[in-house]
Amino acid sequence: MNGMLLNDRKVFVGHFKSRKEREVEFGSKAMKFTNIYIKNFGEDFTDDKLKELFSGYGKTLSVRVMKDEMGCSRGFGFVNYAHHEDAQRVLDEMNGKEINGKVLYVGRAQKRLERQGELKRQFDQIKQERIQRYQVLWDVLSFQPGVNLYVKNLDDTIDDDRLRKEFSPYGTITSAKVMTDSTQSKGFGFVCFSSPEEATKAVTEMNGRIVATKPLYVALAQRREERKAILTNKYMQRMASLRTMASPVIDSYQSGYYMTVPQVCMFFSAYG
Questions:
Q1: Domain ranges, ordered by start, for the chain
Q2: H-helix or E-strand containing 103?
Q3: Radius of gyration, CA atoms only, the chain
């Protein structure tokens, strides 16, 4: 049956492979690439000029500059080598190189299905990170008072596992999450304990402690409304203290008198 035509279509018959096996096989094939993708070389490049630029790295099987309907270069193309080692050397030496005032991009050429698969994996990863991020925020909003800690000034090398490890000596941790922007740490996170006593102990022991290269700031996490109320209360207390300080100065002048605005005296000296 393998190779037979069925309804004008060629049939492929082979051993069944699980998705994981196919991904491993696909990954190993991708590592042995020979076809490279080049872009940003401008509109004046031809097939011959591209071949002249890249043929010095090894035997080429095909060289092609992609053109528009007018026959002009679209600024990108492909070079297929006979050996993977030659293609890898081109990537290592030519990617980022400046040619005629333009910086080349040289990368492994990907088939459409492979590129779509990679984009899907990237999308799934971003989606999963967002789900985890929102789950942490939900935990913060719905936590039992006094068990969730806000930790900031984290070193860039600290991830979820390291954060959990640093706080685990102080009790049972139900969640530990470093907030990230894509894959880069945003420098803060949350640690949730199973009891207020454990959380309080962690604050006492960990606040100000140097982890990796930075001293941590650790405090009980607060809902936005609570934090706003505390800041408002501090502001009102500050304003009240300012009014109290200003009152004796005004009251020291008896009624019926007024204060003159202090005059600034200017002194000039003549230089002979």
A1: 5-109, 122-220
A2: strand 102-103
A3: 34
| CATH number for the domain whose boundaries are 5-109 | 3.30.70.330
Tens digit of pLDDT at every position of the chain (272 positions):
666 776 767 666 666 656 555 555 555 555 688 999 999 887 888 899 999 989 889 999 999 999 888 888 888 999 999 999 999 999 999 999 988 888 999 999 887 776 677 777 777 777 777 666 656 555 555 556 678 999 999 999 999 999 999 999 999 999 999 998 877 899 999 999 999 999 999 999 999 999 988 999 999 887 655 555 555 666 666 766 676 665 554 454 444 444 444 444 444 444 44
> 86 phi and psi, to 5 degrees?
-70, -40
Tell me how far apart the alpha carbons of residues 177 and 197 are, in angstroms, rounded to a whole number: 20
Closest CA relative to residue 180, chosen from 131, 215, 140, 213: 131
Sequence-separated (6 or more) residues with CB below 8 Å from residue 53: 99
H helical segments located in 37-111: 47-54, 84-94
User: Judging by beta carbons within 10 Å of its beta carbon (0-12, 13-18, 19+), is residue 216 exposed, middle or buried?
Assistant: buried
Per-residue tokens: 225: 């409304």
Structure-derived torsion over alpha carbons of residues 225, 226, 231, 233, reported in degrees to the nearest 10: 110
Asked if 36 and 92 count as a contact pair (C-beta separation under 8 A), the reply is no
- Do the Cβ atoms of 50 and 106 come closer than 8 Å? no
Which class in CATH covers the domain with range 122-220?
alpha beta
| Residue with the two structure tokens 């405090």 | 219
